[in-house]
Amino acid sequence: MTPKNDDIFSLREIAIERKAARENLRDNIAETKDRVKPKNLMREAKDNALNKAQDAGMTAVETVKSNPGITASVIAAAALVTLRKPLTRLIAGRSASQTPDPKE
Hints:
This protein is mainly α. The protein has a domain at about 70-100. It has helices at about 5-35, 40-65, 70-80, 85-100. The N and C termini lie far apart (about 125 Å). The model has no long low-confidence stretch (mean pLDDT about 85).
């Protein structure tokens, strides 16, 4: 090709690339406008929160499966702390009913 034809070919290539870039930019702008709508932002936030909660749950399940003894100890300790007062009342009630009545 002659240098003039090379220049014309280069200009056509540049024009084609510019057209493609404009189309991509137009598509990106439209997609961005759609993405920043409040409805879509809320849906995306909800989906992200749900995914994080599921990941945390799966991590917890895997931790429990890999350490059953520690998990049982923690659950037992939590149950004792939670039921401390009811158990104390129950034990105190039984011991009071088992002691002999001095009037008898």
